[in-house]
Amino acid sequence: MGRSGDASAAAAAAAAAANGDVLMLEAPPDALARPWTTPSNAETIDALPYIDEDYGHRAVKDEVDRLVEEEMRRSSKKPSDFLKELPPVPKLKFQNNPMLAREYERVVAGRPPMPFDSSRYSIDMVPPHRRDDQNLWKQTLQKNQRLLQYEVVRLENLDLMSKHGADVWIKHNRQLEGFLARLQKLASEQNEQIETVNRERKYHQQNTAYELNALCREGLEVGNHYGEWSFAALTSQRVSLYLY
Q1: Quick one: DSSP state of residue 92?
Q2: pTM of the model as a whole
Q3: CA–CA distances in Å: residue 172 to residues 95, 97, 158, 166, 236
Q4: Three-class DSSP labels, 150-171
Q5: In angstroms, rounded to a whole number, what is the distance separating the alpha carbons of residues 243 and 58?
Q6: pLDDT tens digits for 144-158?
């Protein structure tokens, strides 16, 4: 378009913005609250995707690819550097849960997990050389009685599960289905709002395209007239100098 076309397009965009028309893809309002997402040297996105046709031309695409490759060659950033702009991850201290703290330290250190101790669930027998120890007999009997009680409770739970487990799972699945339906409704509403915004942008951009094209033609005509006037003035000046 040239400088006059760019100026005309900028003027039309400013006038449309003053009228409340949405003509450019803007950052969300909460982006300013997160400065790490908008670097100071970031460029403003001012593309009009519904009416800009330059990006469909092969020559423009090749030029864009060339500029991107050139910028990547000149950039000193590495892929690992892009995360440095994010805020630091908070450290987990687990002050109120020492067990989680020990497990977290184990995972960070790369140590294997501790094997499950099943000795407390095995029935103990008094060794032959201590069968005269009454205290040991009492301790062994108490432990085995506890294990027996655990097994009784376990059988009761299995019996309850066999009677009511299916109904509980059906109720749980219905709750999950209701939760899924609510999420799908929210997603559908969001998609409808996005579609509405995109349709409004397309409508405004396509309607404004006529004004932009008219301003571009007007700018070109003014430039041509200016060139003709400048040439005529220069010619008249030379003729005047030649005559006098």
Answers
A1: P
A2: 0.44
A3: 34, 30, 19, 10, 93
A4: HHHHHHHHHHHHHHHHHHHHHH
A5: 54
A6: 898 899 999 999 999
Rounded to the nearest 5°, which phi and psi values hold at 96?
-95, 5
| Cα gap 152→145, rounded to integer Å | 10
Q: Where are the beta strands (DSSP E) in 26-136?
A: none
> Which tens digit of pLDDT belongs to each residue from 68-120?
899 888 888 777 777 777 888 787 778 788 888 889 889 989 999 988 887 77
Q: HEC states along 153-216?
A: HHHHHHHHHHHHHHHHHHHHHHHHHHHHHHHHHHHHHHHHHHHHHHHHHHHHHHHHHHHHHHHH
Q: For residue 169, how many C-alpha atoms fall within 13 Å in the half-sphere facing its CB?
A: 6
Contacts of 32 (CB under 8 A, 6+ apart): 38
CB of 183 closer than 8 Å to CB of 191: no
- Report the first-to-last Cα separation within the chain, whole angstroms: 42
Whole-angstrom distance, CA of residue 164 vs CA of residue 161: 5
